[in-house]
Amino acid sequence: MILELEKLTEQVCEVARKAGDYLRKEQQMLDRTQVEQKHTHDYVSYVDKCSEKFIVAELSNILIAGFVTEEGTAQHHGEPYWWVIDPLDGTTNYIHGGHPYAVSIALRNAEEVLLGVVYEVVADECFYAWKGGGAWLNGKPIHVNEHNDITQALLGIELPYQTDYKNFGIYLIRHFYGLAGGIRMNGSAAVALCNVASGRWDGWIEKYIGPWDFMAGLLIVREAGGMITDFQGDENCLEQNSIVASNGSVHKELIEKTEKFSFNFLEI
Hints:
268 residues, seven-stranded mixed beta sheet, globular, alpha+beta
């Protein structure tokens, strides 16, 4: 099967925007008593589930493929292509009436990601990329920045949901605070990756995340000229859960710190 990736990406952008419209409307009426806690500090609501079901139904009309979804409303059964979906990335922000929050959709096969779309709802920013087609934001090309001085870099660092592993995140913040130009947490891995891709941030680090959190952003960063690896610097990181993204120029310094402490962070 030969896929028309540019056309598919356009269709997926429309699906993401429609799902985002639903999220935007529901946030105004969200009943906090209907929010469930999947794990410590990790939440899900009826909104996540309804958004996911809508996205699955829409994508099923676009391409017959399997699914890997955060809320498990559809599955992958060995199909050659599968969609990787986060129907609401940034749920904690969302349920508190904040932002950013986003819809993230990727299409991949066994070897690589073929297209990625991240729609940041509040800012009405649709980031997207397809293999070999560059990275885009609302119809305009984007590219990582060219900063190469870590002391001027703006970095995104998220703490893991699992509080047992908090020391690793705290170490990174302690290390880069004062060394880097600044540190931010935004509560959405998908949006953080797009911040790197669009040159707003120089790098981003997060440990213990799901494929739906970073799969679309991975391709967007790479098509924008950036680098994304696991904590050991391996670019073959589709099956990993700990990710470093950057403009490429500061990647070595980020990897040196994450690799050094990723195995003994409980002792820090």
